UniProtKB/TrEMBL annotation:
Entry note: cofactor: Binds 1 zinc ion per subunit.
Catalytic activity of the protein: Release of an N-terminal amino acid, Xaa-|-Yaa- from a peptide, amide or arylamide. Xaa is preferably Ala, but may be most amino acids including Pro (slow action). When a terminal hydrophobic residue is followed by a prolyl residue, the two may be released as an intact Xaa-Pro dipeptide
Full protein name: Aminopeptidase
Domain Peptidase M1 membrane alanine aminopeptidase: 273-498
A molecular function GO annotation: zinc ion binding
Active site: E346 (proton acceptor)
GO cellular component, one term: cytoplasm
Residues of the signal peptide: 1-17
Residue ranges annotated for the Aminopeptidase N-like N-terminal domain, each copy included: 47-239
Length: 955
């Protein structure tokens, strides 16, 4: 499943506490699951097959039962133990009306409407047998009815407005992680599989699609059609999907792929790119993994109302429309990259998660970590010109570093039971950290060995439930065959060291006068304690030096297993005390690197006065991100960092600029209240100005994708610090749109122009853009405009804008997932946005909780929003107000204790930083930045977090 939240801002729902484990105490096998209790099924019976029959009336707008559905499921099951009295299944928000139970001889044991009980808390449906059931096979038939939900979960309804202004409803599904039980009573756990047969009865004017090809579609009467599908292979219930709609589609019959969307959305773009990308990505994955896709067809469909970004249902991948539809003339190049990446992520799941599933949600990273890795590998192979694999560094690894640097972050292996806790696992740890740790293994073992291990894993575990031990065994087999590890090191210990303990290490590098390099590791925390936080990981390390500046091989020089090791020059790898050294080539290892002051000085000298491109562009990005965050956490002096990043005056590559964009955003936010703020703006302008003038404010036909992205970063920062050229041109471009002198702006610049133009716009201009957003039926355009409207610095306009997100009349046309996006767009907008959003949340928590849930925050709207807001608290006054609000929200039940703890840690760390480093940076700026006149405009500052937001959207 694609994690939507990263498209707007980086938030973490990690609420787990964890203590780093000493290496000698690490288990040699993955942690054992907690004994079955509470929400887990007893698993003394298992399904052998499901036959599902569902009837929906969603086509009939005149029927009072339009949103009702009727169902019957027949489950062939097996009793595994003696003395089983009851059969326990999952159910949710449905009414069971009849139960029939028969044994293998077809002798009927139960045939009534009362031989069952329900437990709403644990969501159990318990079938009561008249006597003890013997080991063997049974047939259980259940009749029930329910209602299509409105929260984008389970079997739910969505709609679009046709060309005549009529509302057209559809019935669709979203079952991950625990919502299949809403469509039919079932064994709704990821490690349980069975083939599924499906019949859907629906209106004649509609059609039905599901995971498998259609077996038959025949009229039932003058109004309804019955569509029956081929049986699935053995699969998990959460991967079942079906859609009843009147959507249009295109197909590639040779490759048995199709793409569906509603006709109005298609008029705003087309489905050709999604179809092309689907075929290319499938070929890339099959070639890389040497495993064939296992279902007979693979469809994609854009759903108007959709909580996640996309969902990997086996054979029928569902998406938010904005993620699937691409307009070659109106969409920015970043949308093409984003669509390719999302498709690659979901198609990666067809192998990791679908073909091989995790035994329990504790191991969600076996799904999402691999899908994250495959999104970069497969999309890059499908579209090499986009250089998508380079983006893994800044999008996944450096993003995960932020969430994983908190004291209460959770480990990759995390046991949970409740549906709420399971949903909370879909976070930066499951996606970005896990994908980055797997990328580390790919480079540490070598791609050939890694691929061989994955094939062993997929072949051995296909159609089965796996644990990390199964992955380790497969990789070990490949490692042994190629002798890719020291004989004293095994894969299981490596994986456990990263998956069973929270956080990640910083590798400290120092060199003494005898030319000996000492390496040591400790856990990296944003809030650094006085004593080093011990933790030992199996850390693969390699290095490049000024004498051996080849960054191409990412195989490890060795593994740091203990906390410290010494390195001496050798014939293969030599250095002197005057040579720069860089560890973690191409930042493929999941750890930060900190050097002693002398080594930082040598690296800085090479970047400033040597050939900066002699250091790989991904390592230049690493140096920027590591130095900014090491200074933030007290591991490094800020004067070293602020001097080092000045090499960006000659940087043209995208990934280093993206790393600066993220790190500088924090400094800007924290220094906005300083009386030396103008010096900081001048410092930033000196970094940006050379490239800003070189790239200009207009895209060129020869521009690469990366060149377009760099230009957006430069424009945002130039306007941010008050460049008159930037402000004048962006304001005039928006003014021309408002006055109808031009239809619109270059799609690759549209986000930055609208945001900067709206920053100080009057109410008429703001209302014009707001009306345009509401009229638009292009989901990608709506996403961009929703984010841009949050850039306004007018409190009254922001208050009005937030109020529209609570509209229930339909006048504003918001979909469920868009309401929370409005709120995000406002609170990321510096002080004015944050404080306006805090007041709005405090006053409207009940309504926000009801309307926002089911949107991009997936059922924990307020918890996720509070975590995001906590990152933007910058002083004691804000902290006190924020903490008081958060405490009230917890008392009212809108926050849980873990979410409140995370919010306190994030906001408290910011306040501590202000107390510690505010004066330090002010003094450095005063000593190193001249206060001479710069050609700036007089407009007030745009929120830098909005800059980062828009760049993320454009990616």
């Amino acid at each position: 499943m694609w994690k939507t939240a990263i498209l707007i801002l980086s938030v973490t729902s990690a609420v787990w506490s964890g203590v780093p484990l000493e290496r000698q105490n690490l288990p040699s096998t993955p942690r054992q699951e907690v004994p079955v209790s509470g929400y887990r099924l007893p698993n003394n019976t298992i399904p052998l097959r499901y036959n599902i029959e569902l009837t929906t009336h969603v086509h009939d707008h005149q029927s009072p039962n339009q949103f009702d559905f009727n169902g019957k499921v027949t489950i062939l099951l097996r009793v595994l133990e003696e003395n089983v009295q009851n059969i326990t299944l999952h159910y949710r928000q449905i009414t069971v009306t009849h139960v029939k139970l028969a044994d293998a001889t077809n002798a009927v044991l139960v045939d009534d409407d009362s031989s069952f009980t329900t437990d709403v808390t644990y969501e159990f449906l318990v079938i009561l047998a008249p006597s003890v059931l013997r080991i063997g096979n049974y047939s259980l038939e259940l009749e029930y009815h329910g209602e299509l939900r409105t929260d984008n979960g389970g079997f739910y309804r969505s709609s679009y407005t046709d060309v005549n202004g009529n509302t057209r409803w559809i019935a669709t599904t979203q079952f991950e992680s625990t919502d299949a039980r809403h469509a039919f009573p079932c064994y709704d756990e990821p490690g349980t599989r069975a083939p599924i047969g499906l019949k859907l009865t629906h209106g004649n004017a509609y059609h039905a699609i599901s995971n498998m090809p259609i077996k038959s579609s025949l009229p039932w009467n003058a109004t309804y059609t019955v569509t029956e599908f081929e049986d699935t292979l053995a699969m998990q219930t959460y991967l079942l999907a079906f859609v009843v709609s009147d959507f249009a589609f295109i197909s590639n019959t040779e490759n048995k792929q199709s793409v569906y969307a509603n006709p109005v959305s298609i008029s705003n773009g087309d489905l050709n790119f999604a179809l092309e990308a689907g075929v290319k990505v499938t070929n890339a994955l099959e070639n890389y993994l040497q495993v064939k896709y296992s279902f007979p067809k693979l469809d994609q469909i854009g759903i108007p109302d959709f909580a996640a970004g996309a969902m990997e249902n086996w054979g029928l991948v569902t998406y938010r429309e904005e993620a699937l539809i691409y307009n070659s003339t109106k969409s920015p190049m970043g949308q093409l990259k984003r669509t390719a990446s999302i498709i690659a992520h979901e198609y990666g799941h067809q192998f990791f998660g679908n073909l091989v599933s995790p035994k329990w949600w504790s191991y969600l990273w076996l799904n999402e970590g691999f899908a994250t890795l495959m999104q970069y590998i497969a999309a890059d192979k499908a579209y090499p010109d986009l250089r998508i694999q380079d983006m893994a560094t800044v999008e996944a690894l450096q993003n995960a570093f932020q969430s994983d640097a908190l004291e209460n972050t959770r480990p990759m292996n995390s046991y949970v039971e409740t549906p709420t806790a399971i949903s909370a696992l879909f976070d930066d740890i499951a996606y970005d950290k896990s994908g980055s740790v797997l990328r580390q293994l790919q480079h540490a073992f070598g791609d050939t060995v890694f691929r061989a291990g994955l094939k062993y894993y997929l072949d051995a575990m296909q159609f089965k439930a796996a644990t990390p031990a199964d992955l380790a065994a497969a990789l070990q087999r490949a490692v042994d065959a190629h002798q890719a590890l020291p004989s004293t090191t095994n894969v299981s210990d490596i994986i456990n060291s990263w998956a069973d303990q929270s956080g990640y290490p910083v590798l400290h590098v120092s060199r003494n006068t005898d030319n000996v390099i000492t390496l040591s590791q400790e856990r990296y925390l944003l809030k650094r304690s006085r004593d080093a936080v011990k933790g030992t990981w199996y850390l693969p390390y390699n290095m490049a030096t000024s004498q051996a500046s080849d960054f191409s091989s990412t195989l490890p020089h060795d593994w740091l297993i203990d906390q410290t090791v010494e390195l001496r020059p050798s014939a293969a790898l030599n250095w002197t005390n005057d040579d720069w050294v860089i560890f973690n080539k191409q930042q493929t290892g999941y750890y930060r690197v900190n050097y002693d002051d002398k080594l930082w000085e040598l690296i800085t000298h090479e970047l400033h006065h040597g050939n900066h491109s002699s250091i790989h562009h991904l390592n230049r990005a690493q140096l920027i991100d590591d130095s900014l965050n090491l200074a933030r956490s007290g591991h490094l002096k800020y004067d070293i960092t602020l001097k080092l990043i000045q090499f960006l005056t000659k940087e043209e590559e995208y990934v280093p600029w993206a790393s600066l964009n993220n790190g500088l955003a924090y400094l800007n936010r924290m220094l906005a209240g300083s009386n030396k703020y103008n010096l900081f703006k001048k410092y930033v302008w000196e970094l940006v100005e050379p490239s800003f003038h070189k790239f200009g404010l207009e895209n060129k036909p020869s521009d690469t994708h990366f060149a377009k992205l760099v230009r957006n970063i430069l424009i945002n920062w130039a306007c941010q610090v008050g460049s008159e050229d930037c402000l004048t041109q962006t304001n005039s471009q928006l003014a021309e749109v408002v006055s109808n002198k031009t239809e619109d702006i270059d799609p690759n610049l549209k986000g930055v122009v609208y945001c900067n133009g709206l920053r100080n716009a009057d109410s008429n201009t703001f209302q014009y853009v707001l009306d345009r957003m509401h009229r638009s039926q292009d989901p990608s355009d709506r996403m961009l405009l929703i984010s841009a409207l949050g850039c306004s610095e007018n409190t009254a306009l922001l208050e009005m804008y937030l109020a529209t997100s609570l509209d229930e009349t339909g006048d504003f046309g918001y979909r469920g997932q868009e309401r929370s996006r409005v709120f995000s767009a406002v609170y990321v907008n510096e002080r004015v946005g944050l404080e306006t959003a805090m007041k709005f949340l405090d006053a409207n928590a009940a309504t926000i909780d009801r309307l926002y849930n089911g949107g991009s925050f997936g059922g924990r709207a307020i918890g996720s929003a509070v975590t995001g807001m906590a990152r933007r608290v910058v002083n004691k006054e804000q902290y006190d107000e924020f903490l008081a609000m958060s405490t009230r929200l917890e008392f009212a039940g809108y926050l849980n204790a873990g979410e409140l703890s995370t919010a306190k840690e994030l906001s408290g760390e910011n306040v501590q930083w202000t107390n510690t480093y505010f004066n330090v940076i002010e003094s450095w700026l005063e000593a190193n930045v001249k206060s001479g006149a710069v050609r700036f405009g007089t407009a007030s500052m745009m929120a830098v977090t909005t800059v980062a937001t828009l760049v993320a959207v454009l990616l």
